[in-house]
Amino acid sequence: MNAQIDHALEEIRRFRPSPEFAAQAVADEGLYDAARTDRLEFWADQARTLLQWEKPFTRTLDWSNPPFAKWFDDGELNVAVNCLDRHVDAGLGDRVALHWEGEPGDSRDITYAELTDEVKRAANTLIDLGVREGDRVAIYLPMIPEAVVSMLAVARLGAIHSVVFGGFSADSLASRIDDAEASVVITADGGYRKGRVFPLKPVVDEALEKSAGSVRNVLVVRRGENEVDWNADRDVWWHESVATASNEHEARAFEAEHPLFILYTSGTTGKPKGILHTSGGYLTQAAFTHRNVFDLHPERDVYWCTADVGWITGHSYVVYGPLANGATQVLYEGTPDTPHPGRWWEIVEKYGVTILYTAPTAIRSFMKLGRQIPHEFNLRTLRLLGSVGEPINPEAWIWYRHVIGGGSIPVVDTWWQTETGAIMISALPGVTDLKPGSAQVPVPGISIDILDDDGTAVEGEGGGLLVATEPWPSMLRGIWGDPERFKETYWEKFGDKYFAGDGARRDEDGDIWLLGRVDDVMNVSGHRLSTAEIESSLVAHPWTAEAAVVGASDETTGQAVVAFVILKASQVSHVNDPMEASEELRRHVATQIGAIARPRQVFIVNELPKTRSGKIMRRLLRDLAEGREVGDTTTLADTSIMEVISAQLR
Ligand code: WT7
């Protein structure tokens, strides 16, 4: 009887594609067969079919100098033309590219013809500001159409964009501007968030005071109508320059390996890494996965990815993938709960969204609020749901499918990283049987394996470290200005295999389950944060003597930042109340790095657990932060220390 129940449960937890969905699906088994037969020819074929090349390539992959890959390197294309002009030339100029929705409820529909026009004008403005091929342009904008326009205008010129998420602080912005030596910053006066205008231009002003001075001009979109200081030698209004610029711009083609963008992400050290992506391979895999993983039918779908363009998801699945595929999509400026908790579902209803791509942390917060909120809206247009950023627990998967998706539509869990550029592991809707909680299988043309710590492949069922065993088209081409760090971080551990930094398990069906990071990188609400970066921010505060940060599991955000801080003896007498100190330090991290890095808790302690060689044992602090029995303490220099610390937390 029990075995029968188990069996039934197993069956429930596996979902076959419905025959109706399968019949109309973009993807089919043939993709796997083609990729297995000749992986390189498979990608060459995708690159030729999905993109328009000014000069066709004859070489697919050059891996003669690993880990520096070149894809399609004798071909030439213009990425912006692929996302814009070619659709207009194909007669699709009147198709809506963006249904933009501002947080306060203002909205704009922008067609492919209009978007192309605007990008050409922005490109001409950037030329006037001296931007040339290979120059770096920092973009610090809210989720408004000008963010998409700016990225494409930079790409059109063969310049390199570095988008910095609008929630990052002046310090974080300054260090990114300096690392890339950006010559222009594109920003807005402010944007809307949680019903208020948050200022951006003032943050840019502050960042430029701190920065080394590479920036010549700041191009400013008027959005928040908040007051801003103006430096007439440096600052230029978008509505005075772009609006009046010529809408004629002849785009030239660039080599497939021409740099497209830099995007900073947290690593295991305090300094963020500038992940570098190039043109032809990146666009091929972004377009391929966007089409096949999301079953995109561009003539009828309304697609919505809720990510901000400040993250890789916004680059690949708001800008490059969807626009290369000629999709119609929603772009939303604000937060999910403003002005009311049903805001997202209202947007789905308003635009008839058919494909929704979001993060588990959002799904879990909606779960907490209850199903009556989404049920007030008509969500029946939805036909596919996607998830990204962290493992989606089976309960959240089921809730997403039932409450948002009405019970029978596919949910795809997509695993990838800033570094991989595009989706690497995911089911293909209409093809793969779905299994809640597992990201499942590599997409066609991608080679993934699970290795032991010593590099031996884990055969069959079992756990280990996730690697990519073959180069892939959208892989990072390096870390900006630091080839050594690129090799060390990803390639030193296993030689010719890419080490992703994630733990993973393969189940009896061969499906892959992601188990979280194995390094000192935390995942908070699907965003990457480095323990080292937050620790150095804490230590930079005049009160702090020492700090240790851990990622503790959190019901809503996946992980949360928890810090343990020892105050300087000289300061202890000035600090009246440990609560006050902990509040001050939380605020400090938020101003230094950005609100996403603000610790959930800062515990003021007198000691930290250390090994005899002086290494902080974060594992034990994580036990404390998660309210667990403290694990093995035998390697501590002072084995009684954990009792002392936990007594202090009580
Ligand atoms: C890290 C990459 C890729 C866009 C968003 C995050 C975790 C990402 C999943 C998933 C389990 C996931 C990994 C990865 N991650 N997607 N579907 N299941 N974990 O990009 O900021 O570069 O972070 O996010 O730990 O290494 P990112």
TrEMBL record:
Catalytic activity as recorded in UniProt: acetate + ATP + CoA = acetyl-CoA + AMP + diphosphate
AMP-dependent synthetase/ligase domain: residues covered: 91-480
UniProt GO cellular component terms: cytosol
Enzyme class: ligase
Residues bearing the modification N6-acetyllysine: K615
Binding site residues for Mg(2+): V539, H541
Binding positions for CoA per the UniProt entry: R193, K194, G195, R196, T313, S525
Listed name of the protein: Acetyl-coenzyme A synthetase
UniProt GO BP: acetyl-CoA biosynthetic process from acetate
Lineage: Bacteria, Bacillati, Actinomycetota, Actinomycetes, Micrococcales
Organism: Agromyces kandeliae
EC number(s) given by UniProt: 6.2.1.1
Needed cofactors: Mg(2+)
Keywords carried by this UniProt record: Acetylation, ATP-binding, Ligase, Magnesium, Metal-binding, Nucleotide-binding
HAMAP family: Ac_CoA_synth
Domain named AMP-binding enzyme C-terminal: residues: 533-615
Domain Acetyl-coenzyme A synthetase N-terminal: 31-83
Family, per entry: Belongs to the ATP-dependent AMP-binding enzyme family.
Positions of ATP binding: G389, E390, P391, D413, T414, W415, W416, Q417, T418, D502, R517, R528
Transmembrane intervals: none
